[in-house]
Q: What sequence folds into this?
């Protein structure tokens, strides 16, 4: 049976762990508010961007579009070429199943596409370490971004977008898939795998109102194809920025609930241990009393 | 109040800087030179380059440092989509100068390509901020 001292030691170590998990929970809770606000703040930009793109597309004659370099971003490429994966994970652990589920989804994707040349663009330390450990795959990590959370900014998304475009144009990549965790609510995250490139053509028609186009005749400077060409990378940048923010908020939410349950478990453990300690102490006192009484009786008092 | 006003909206990915703020005149740093917009301007879409965006509204004058993006003018509404926009008074000249020097150093040292790209962008940003700080000094 454990001695009193051992149990005390155990209790104090559980207590300090609880303090840490509790502090981590509070930190995550404080940051999550900011992360949520960042998501909200990024929305108007994305909406206006989409509207501008569809306005521009509506103004563009069909012939203009198909011969502009922007059209290349929409064009489906012949299947069988290399693929590119963009994986957004967290930098740190201790956030429940956040990374595990993400890496499982990534592993699934990699298994499906095994045998092809793969390029990876990875955000977050966990994902990078995971991809580095993989063997027997024709996988090349072309770009990594580590240590940006919890201060992900648009600059990071832009850097990411530039590198993705570089890979996309120089390596004849068939398609670019983005895997990240979406912030659904405080308690739930959802893994999203979506195609980033080639662009889906519906973003062009997205802002069109039924019943025809708006009447405005715009002046364009520079001319339309050039403008569209400059706009589209920014559209991808805005999309990536949103993914980063979602992932950031989801990570904090996951960490918060994980740390909350850890703190709860620690409390339960402490309760049980305290009970055991008291029982042991009581038992010791009883035996000591027993000894004293029986001793004095033996002396014939 | 008979005079028509422009409504200026500036959004960046990180926040909405201005929402439908009335203005008499807006000067936009377009790719091919500065464009002045008065009420009643024709509909227009321009690409921005990093520079100073100014607007006047009565006695109120303000300037922003904007980095590349787009601006759309349609029916007295001016919509600016910039990658970043900072109010003149928020800019710290000393810090901009330091950033400029640091970026310059990185470029002369010639690190790897990624660092270089980043330094080039930082250099541009710092240059705009310094220009704006100077502008603010002149027009106070």
A:
């Amino acid at each position: 049976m454990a001695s009193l001292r051992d149990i005390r030691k155990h209790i104090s170590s559980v207590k300090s762990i609880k303090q840490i998990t509790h502090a981590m929970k509070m930190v995550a809770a404080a940051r999550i508010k900011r992360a949520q606000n960042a998501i909200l703040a990024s929305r108007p930009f994305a909406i206006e961007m989409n509207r501008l793109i569809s306005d521009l597309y509506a103004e563009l004659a069909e012939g203009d579009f198909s011969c502009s370099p922007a059209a290349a971003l929409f064009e489906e490429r012949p299947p069988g070429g290399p693929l590119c994966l963009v994986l957004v994970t967290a930098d740190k652990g201790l956030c429940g199943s956040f990374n595990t589920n993400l890496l499982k989804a990534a592993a699934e994707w990699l298994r499906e596409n095994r045998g092809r040349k793969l390029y990876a663009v990875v955000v977050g330390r966990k994902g990078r370490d995971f991809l580095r450990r993989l063997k027997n795959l024709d996988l090349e990590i072309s770009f990594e971004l580590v240590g940006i959370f919890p201060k992900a900014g648009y600059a990071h998304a832009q850097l990411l977008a530039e590198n993705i475009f570089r890979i996309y144009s120089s390596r004849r990549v068939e398609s670019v898939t983005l895997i990240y965790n979406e912030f659904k609510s405080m308690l739930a995250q959802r893994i999203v795998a979506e195609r980033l490139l080639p662009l889906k053509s519906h973003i062009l028609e997205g802002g069109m109102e039924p019943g025809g186009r708006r009447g405005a005749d715009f002046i364009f400077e520079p001319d339309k194809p050039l403008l569209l060409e400059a706009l589209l990378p920014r559209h991808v940048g805005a999309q990536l920025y949103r993914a980063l923010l979602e992932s950031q908020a989801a990570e904090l939410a996951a960490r918060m609930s994980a740390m909350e349950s850890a703190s709860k478990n620690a409390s339960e453990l402490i309760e049980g241990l305290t009970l055991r300690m008291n029982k042991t102490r009581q038992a010791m006192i009883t035996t000591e009393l027993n000894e004293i009484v029986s001793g004095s009786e033996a002396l014939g008092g | 109040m008979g005079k028509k006003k422009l409504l200026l909206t500036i959004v960046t990915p990180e926040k909405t800087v201005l929402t439908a703020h009335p203005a008499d005149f807006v000067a936009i740093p377009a790719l091919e030179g500065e464009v002045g917009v008065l009420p009643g301007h024709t509909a227009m879409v321009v690409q921005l380059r990093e520079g100073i965006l100014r607007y006047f509204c009565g006695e109120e004058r303000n300037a922003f440092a904007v980095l590349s993006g787009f601006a759309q003018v349609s029916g007295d509404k001016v919509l600016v989509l910039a990658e970043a926009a900072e109010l003149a008074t928020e800019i710290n000249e000393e810090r901009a100068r330091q950033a400029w020097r640091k970026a310059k150093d990185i470029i002369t040292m010639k690190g790897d390509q990624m660092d270089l790209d980043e330094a080039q962008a930082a250099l541009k940003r710092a240059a705009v901020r310094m220009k704006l700080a100077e502008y603010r000094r002149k027009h106070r």
